[in-house]
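User: Predict the complex with nicotinamide-adenine-dinucleotide.
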Amino acid sequence: MEIEGRAIVVSGGGSGIGRAAVLALAGRGAKVIVADLDETGGRQTVDLAGAKGGVAVFRHCDVTRTEDLAGAFACAFEHFGRLDVAFNNAGIGGEDLFADDPGDWAKVIDIDLTAVIDATRIAVREMRRSGRGGVIINTASMGGLLPMAGSPVYAAAKAGVVNFTRSLAYLAEEANIRVNAICPSFTDTPLVRRSGDEHVEEMGRMVGGILLPEDIAAGVVDLIEDDSRFGAVMRVTVRGGRDFAREVRPY
Ligand SMILES: NC(=O)c1ccc[n+]([C@@H]2O[C@H](COP(=O)([O-])OP(=O)(O)OC[C@H]3O[C@@H](n4cnc5c(N)ncnc54)[C@H](O)[C@@H]3O)[C@@H](O)[C@H]2O)c1
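Assistant: Here is the predicted structure with nicotinamide-adenine-dinucleotide placed in the model:
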């Protein structure tokens, strides 16, 4: 799909990978809804896109609320008269499940998996209704393909996103909707910086380097433009660049 002139909803567009994707897409002539819980970050992204001559609109959205998600997709029709791409990217980091205070680990499932399912569900219905088809990209993680000691619930949520996405490959033929996942390795965003600069450097050494949010945005651009990909799982790593996880053979 050509990106110019397309209407795209990016969740988590107020920071990190989502922001880099908004800037890359708006820079290619897309019209973007920046859907985020964080109004300050979201509006900053809109300003950055505008400064580059791009078109972007902020929409407050808590992805765990179905009505907010529906509102974000409706916003694309209101402002741009169409919906072509959903980048379901909003997410939070892992949990220390066995700590004295393990935190609200169920929130990791709610945001990183359940909300991605709900956003995909709504986007597919809207794309079917429009009759134009579309592209859906779900942000998973290399942690959804490999074990992640220390963040087992995050790894489970992201593995869920991977297999959920693979299971929707059939929509390409049935409804001209290509659903793909992107699996970034460790990427330098506010999410990982919150765990401290030292931790970031250590993780970078472990995985062979740290990616930039722009590296993931380039993968998102590829997945929109490459019409041959559906149910595909793109990995983005420092060592391997952009490649695809092996297709799962049907029984
Ligand atoms: N940074 C990494 O190393 C890395 C690696 C693999 C996958 N990911 C995934 O990439 C995605 C983006 O992460 P990032 O690193 O850019 O993080 P980030 O914290 O920089 O950005 C995440 C954005 O999501 C928003 N968000 C969080 N909860 C939300 C909610 N309930 N509703 C709406 N918006 C919400 C935040 O406000 C923020 O703007 C996440 O799904 C994350 O799991 C990140």
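The radius of gyration is 17 Å.
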